[in-house]
Model the fold of this input.
Amino acid sequence: MTYIYSLHDGCEDKNELGNKGGNLVTMAAKIGLPVPSAFVLSISDAYRQYKRTGKLDEAEIDKAMASLEKEMKRELGKGLEVSVRSSGPVSMPGMMDTILNIGDMNKVKASIQQVFESWDSKRAIEYRRLNSIPSDLGTAAIVQAMVYGNRDADSGTGVVFTRNPSTGERGLFGEYLSEAQGEDVVSGARTPVPVASLKTKMPKVYAELDKITKQLESYYHDMQDVEFTVESGKLYILQTRSGKRGGYAAVKIAVDMVAEGLITREEAVLRVTVEALRSLLHKRIKSPESYKPLTQGLNAAPGAAGGKVVFEPAEAAALAKQGVATILVRPETSPDDIHGIAAAVGVLTQKGGLTSHAAIVTRAMGKACVCGAETISVDMKAEHFVVGEKVVKKGDEITIDGSTGNVYLGLLPLEEVSVVPELAELISWCNGFKRLGVRTNADTPEMIAQAVQFGAEGVGLCRTERMFNEPDRLNVIRSFILADTDEERQAAIKKLLPLQKKDFTAIFKKLNGLPIIIRLLDMPLHEFLPAEKDTTDPKVKKRIAELREVNPMLGHRGIRLAVTHPELYKMQIEAIEQAMTAVPANVSIMFPQVMAVEEVNLVKTFFKDTDIKIGVMVETVRAAMTADQLAEAVAFFSFGTNDLTQATLSFSREDAEEKFLAPYLEKGLLKNDPFEVLDIQGVGKVMEAAVFWGRRAKKDLEIGVCGEQGGEPKSIRFLHAIGVDYVSCSPFRIPIAKLAAAQAALKEKMSVKAEDAVAKSVSLM
Amino acid sequence: MTYIYSLHDGCEDKNELGNKGGNLVTMAAKIGLPVPSAFVLSISDAYRQYKRTGKLDEAEIDKAMASLEKEMKRELGKGLEVSVRSSGPVSMPGMMDTILNIGDMNKVKASIQQVFESWDSKRAIEYRRLNSIPSDLGTAAIVQAMVYGNRDADSGTGVVFTRNPSTGERGLFGEYLSEAQGEDVVSGARTPVPVASLKTKMPKVYAELDKITKQLESYYHDMQDVEFTVESGKLYILQTRSGKRGGYAAVKIAVDMVAEGLITREEAVLRVTVEALRSLLHKRIKSPESYKPLTQGLNAAPGAAGGKVVFEPAEAAALAKQGVATILVRPETSPDDIHGIAAAVGVLTQKGGLTSHAAIVTRAMGKACVCGAETISVDMKAEHFVVGEKVVKKGDEITIDGSTGNVYLGLLPLEEVSVVPELAELISWCNGFKRLGVRTNADTPEMIAQAVQFGAEGVGLCRTERMFNEPDRLNVIRSFILADTDEERQAAIKKLLPLQKKDFTAIFKKLNGLPIIIRLLDMPLHEFLPAEKDTTDPKVKKRIAELREVNPMLGHRGIRLAVTHPELYKMQIEAIEQAMTAVPANVSIMFPQVMAVEEVNLVKTFFKDTDIKIGVMVETVRAAMTADQLAEAVAFFSFGTNDLTQATLSFSREDAEEKFLAPYLEKGLLKNDPFEVLDIQGVGKVMEAAVFWGRRAKKDLEIGVCGEQGGEPKSIRFLHAIGVDYVSCSPFRIPIAKLAAAQAALKEKMSVKAEDAVAKSVSLM
Done:
């Protein structure tokens, strides 16, 4: 048991010296940096003894102080002052006392007592309770010599990054303020100069700083953010930690460090956060700090975009044809606005949350979106919106930042996205490490081409709804729905067949050999009819009334359509078979909304071509519960996590979001929006069961996930763990999904290694 | 290996002699009955040898025939004819050949070959394939002396039951036709006389028949249906089997046989079918065979009822006050018609299936209902309905039979239900055998009183929706929903509190010490507002629009209301607490639509009285998946199998029934309507998981089932098996549920015994 450690003892044990104390030893003893002299009163002995007896071992402290004085070549109170601060094994920022500028021995001892006592202060106890930190950890106390950046003209204080946190370029980057202490920099009263200015002003100090920061990078294998003080020309290092950095810099630094041999590829992949990558994959406002936002909404779909304000989707479409960028502003959006959203460069809505229609659609399209900006008031009639006293009219220019939720007046300069070589390299490493495949959800040749550029390994979900909504076929499908006789129905089907064949042929041409999974029609038929108020045709009105459903989400859709209207699925299957003859392709077909193997067996009889792999969407709970039976009937599963979430939570997405999702998140009844981040405790458990039963029945059953949660990093870790084969997400999410998948695989490997080590040590006992 | 068995050999082995052969031996050798002489060619030797060689062992047959001639004291062709028929170990009715009246030896042998060959006839092969009967079982062949009921005036043929199949009374009951063979009875050309007439006409035969049938009952421990022939004054028994019987007779016979020492109480309980009990518990038409139905619909809710035709619920209510019985006729019913359904004695609808609103509500109320009678055409304006050319007007009298689906003109005589002493005794035995508790779903003091009469062991589900729908409080809850300010809302709550207290006090008074589980408000608020078309108030219209939901089933209801409008649940809890002070009661409270333990923890803070047991409805899949967490937070679960079925299958009940449930049942994609019979493969698996996880977290967790499937016998067997503590069903289903629960417990005991026996025999090896 040691009462006091000097920095030279070399003990870095944080359970004994706390975090700060351990770090001081690392810098002073391990790396040999010029750190102000200090000693540390231990947790196990000094702190515990004080707690027990209420007394300090004054003789030990006197002895340590004598050494410190000797080292500093000054005496306490005579040119030497010390600070006393706490150093716990767990960080409790701002909770514990710190005392500076102590000039005599009695005050040092009183200060040590004060620091030890502050472990049991009300706020510290409350903080530990809230953060589940055990109360008996205790704290060390550091007594350290003060150094003064304000002593003379050769003194000063500064902060440097070892690489540029925006560009990632190597070399010192930071600021220096001469004749100042740290608090002077924080207060902002005086303006610091670039640290490079030291190169000429104090070349020796600069050279030493350069050398030291390189040592720190080598030691910690990461870019460092270093605080230093120069006292009368002598450099002291006060603190070092991993430096925060922008998305681009994060990627560049990680890739560069691999080239420099500082870290491995695995470490590089683990170090780049998905947030960093996300910010890199979208347009950004250049120096956003220079502009004052007009207002703020929810950061619904990342990226920045600027253009003329329009209120009508048709107007956005018309202006897009003239090459005019527009921001579509609406109280909220609906499926009727899709063409306007597609034409605009960004969307701003007054109402709706992160899972609103606008948010979901724009994220899928990779367009910027700020939604739920409740401070704005949209007047569709007057074609303007009001924020406070400011009226923004149709045609006015605005810029929105979907990454922050900010809305600005005018067109701000933007930085373009580019898949930089460093990113391409990082993703290529990810491809090597990850086990999860990453495919894309894409319905059109254009989306497929884009997804291929982003590295898609196939099309995991090709919906067929949109194909029917194209103007030339909407009338045909309507004539099918309105038909009174079998002849009329057959006539409509005959017209649809060549159109669908054309759709699939065009898609197959863009695949470049990648596999594709086509989902047969899922949408309820009534969604193809016009809105009741938009028609005067009594026949159409009658059919709308007949097809109306109380709960369309749980209604007559998906494979249920094939039970009651086999013609549609038969036509789609035939169109796919014909398209495959025209353009050979690796095609799988899946059935939506399946809840019983009997449904699958019925639709399997519709096939001629036995080369097509057949699978089911697992998006009803019953499909998951009967996964063993389904697995015997099909080659693959694809989890439809959106609908499965609705079914598992009994949450209608649209209703939940409008009526009660917000209070649920606010009150902590749900940790995340389950339509954004997979609900692992509920939906995840249903999926785990399906994977288990499915694979028990068919060992090589292929299992994928379509549904937007498949591109969400936290969800990906879980999907990797339960043995899913691939996820499928919108094209823009592919690099992020790959990074998350690689990180999941690497973390799994690490924990297996750790377990192996434990097993080995146990077997040696 | 035996080639031919005589009836006197005593071998009853059905694998050797087939079913019929074995039974013949039982009657002849074991009971000593006068059976026409016969011998049986064995399966293992005679049949197999023939299959192998294509030849019969003629010497053996000649020898057996010689014995038969000796026994019959006649020679083949000279007063003796024989029949040859098959006798397999598994019944294949009508599939195998039978040859009668064979008069010479060559034909006997040819006939035996023909019977053996017919095992491999096309239709027999197809029958076995369809019924999964192994093809190598083979068949025996019976050669039996013909006897002749048409020989002379002292000959005849008849059928008797050992007890009256309608009343259950002991004593011969049946018919006799003199100078006739069996086929003459079947053809109906001559009318038989009651068997009792033999008592005077042929007293010796009658006495022998009486003695023999008593022997048969003693031997088989069941009421028998016996075919016999009298040939020149000599009685022959041709066949015996368990007799079919009506509901009342089934109960009386079972209870009587226990008193007579013929069977045990366990056997009595196992022998009465739930169908028998069901028919006993409802009014019946007296001699329905005497009337021709006007038309037929679906037998939606059992029982018969007659009254004046009305089309408007209000009219049914008005007439009920004058004591006039009415049948409510509607194209289909909706929740608005409840008061009319409650006032009528029966309901007839043109549309809707077995799970339509009319069917569900009437079953719950124990009222007769025929629904989906598509041959009728209801004209609400003209207030009449048309069947073919017949017009039935308002005020005309009709009778409906909800057990058969028949609709009759006029008032037919009905038989009343009475809980006969035999039924009471049988149910008291069930109470002793069953492990499952049987509670009732009841919301009003009247229903509770009725359920207690039917033997309810508590109230498993007391809904609170209907209380708000009473006219005096509907306006108050509406003022709550329409309130603009907190003050207005609080004022509404203050008015509701004493009304709810009154509701609960009245209910508690009827409990007689039985426990009650009250479910807090589940219904979405918009259901308390009038229909959009029924209001002109712009404020109401606006609120209707705001509360409208895309999928109300998955929307803002149940405990979600307590998250956004805590006042309502707080008021309900306070009302219950106050009512308990007024009338002490054993009260539990449960929360509907729970999907996370966090919701439960929030609402638990609304309670003052800690004596109230708190539970959750498990009716979302997520509740089942997080059953471990929920079990730690509550004292009990109650499965809401209706909503859980909707969530598991992604089936909206209303939409499924109207749009696709019928084709699913027709095409065999579903075996049963999952809202009638619990879907064991899907919903059952979710429930099993919840029971497992719930009990692992809390060993003594109480688990019940409310939801109508809980009263369905097939479902009850499953619920017993997974360890549910009680089911809760409508009052009229209680005796049936008790019988099914007792049968489940007895069958489990039997299979445990069988397993024990196997284990014992294994351990002896």
Summary: The first helix of chain A runs from residue 14 to 30. The first strand of chain A starts at residue 4 and ends at 6.
